[in-house]
Amino acid sequence: MTDEVQRGNMAAAEGPSFWLGNETLKVPAALFALNRKRLCDRLRGNKDVQKNAIVLMQGGEEAQRYCTDTGIVFRQESYFHWTFGVTEPDCYGAIDVDTGKSIVFVPKLPESYAVWMGKIHHPEYFREKYAVDEVHYKDEITSVLASKKPSVLLTLRGVNTDSGNISREASFEGISHRVIKTDMELEVLRYTNKISSEAHKEVMKAIKVGMKEYEMESLFQHYCYTRGGMRHTSYTCICGSGNNSSVLHYGHAGAPNDKTVEDGDLCLFDMGGEYYCYASDITCTFPANGKFTPDQRAIYEAVLKSSRAVMKAIKPGVAWPDMHRLADRVHLEELTKIGILKGNVDDMVKVHLGAIFMPHGLGHLLGIDVHDVGGYPEGVDRINLPGLKSLRTARVLKEGMVLTVEPGIYFIDRLLDQALNDPSQSCFINNEVLQRFRRFGGVRIEDDIAVAANGMELLTCVPRTVEEIEAFMAEAQGSTKSFDSLASQK
Ligand SMILES: [Mn+2]
């Protein structure tokens, strides 16, 4: 990141930008110009890429709900967004690798569009809006590209290592630069974190025993959209209360955040808003009634300890799997102090006991996708061991990477029973104490961080210690400063 432009801040960037008015963030089109430049620089440095190459990418397509006449709210395809920042569906984009010149191809819309959808814009409108060099209609792709006489067309094709789905287009190694965020991109991620952090705090203020989990989901989304211009969330909201807080991906259609929040429940709310296709991913865990029980406090503080130990250790050059191992070790030490485990922690590590309590990975890359791409480039292999195999990246950290740090301790019946039936693990478990934690649920503390030159920058800002949470919730209960009352005052 030595480039002058990358160091320039956003205010300095005059010219076209994406902005939703009010207090929302202005994102300059220059962000994408820089991404294209980085892509071309990288490709020009690759000896396998011949002179006079052109990159051709396809944007996301408008989709209907199954076979019905109901449109799905469009969200741009992530690679295309990273490269062009175009919000409309059904576009293509091309970049001349040698000159860096960019072309966007837009659909030629039918007359009926003007009746049903609104104004049909001329290509010049898009050229100015996105600050690209040329805009043509999509049906001219062949002739426009042929006139440039490229030696080769580079397309994008690769397998997403998380979903296993094949993205429809070629893995040219240039695009993997997406794991390093520019200062302009970091600014957007700071914003998504700021708004989403505030939205989490609104939820903590508003929650009352007797409410439904989905009311909290709705309030989060309402805040993110009203205040932050975030039409989408980065993923389906997970609003687990009570034992649901141990269900890692709760909130899906089969369990749609529909339980009533009860007195004594621990709430684990994992929600993140998305702005202009940039994600956030934040989890807050707190007691529904605002006061931790001694057991809830003990488990919460064990997780907070591992979170903070990891954050202290993060810096360029550190291997991410080592951070996962560090969190596991802290959990095992703390669970021993609490009395759930007994024996030597080194021996527990040998039988992978940590993965019983934290079956998921410590965290993942974050950017335009909530589980951002580039976790396993060539030469970085998945570690096939309990817990570690769930990591979405095993990379060595570099400045400019953005990741989640999300340790958790969960009491999942299936895994606990499995451990109790395995003599190599059950010998470390004090089952009498463990019984007290059946149906406890789980704790996850998830923050987003950017790797900095000498450490890290914390992007998320929510109450984190037990004292902060209890004080924040106590104050909220006694005040009228809920989002709804603020909204009605406007
Ligand atoms: Mn996450």
Automatic annotation (TrEMBL):
Signal peptide: none annotated. GO terms for molecular function: manganese ion binding; metalloaminopeptidase activity; proline dipeptidase activity. CDD domains: Prolidase (cd01087). Residues 27-164 form the Aminopeptidase P N-terminal domain. It catalyses: Xaa-L-Pro dipeptide + H2O = an L-alpha-amino acid + L-proline. One of its GO terms (biological process) is proteolysis. InterPro entries: Aminopep_P_N (IPR007865), Creatin/AminoP/Spt16_N (IPR029149), Creatinase/aminopeptidase-like (IPR036005), Pept_M24 (IPR000994), Peptidase_M24B_aminopep-P_CS (IPR001131), X-Pro_dipept-like (IPR052433). Pfam families: AMP_N (PF05195), Peptidase_M24 (PF00557). The keyword Hydrolase applies. Keywords: Dipeptidase, Hydrolase, Manganese, Metal-binding, Metalloprotease, Protease. Its EC number is 3.4.13.9. Its cofactor is Mn(2+). The keyword Protease applies. Homodimer. Belongs to the peptidase M24B family. Eukaryotic-type prolidase subfamily. This is Xaa-Pro dipeptidase.
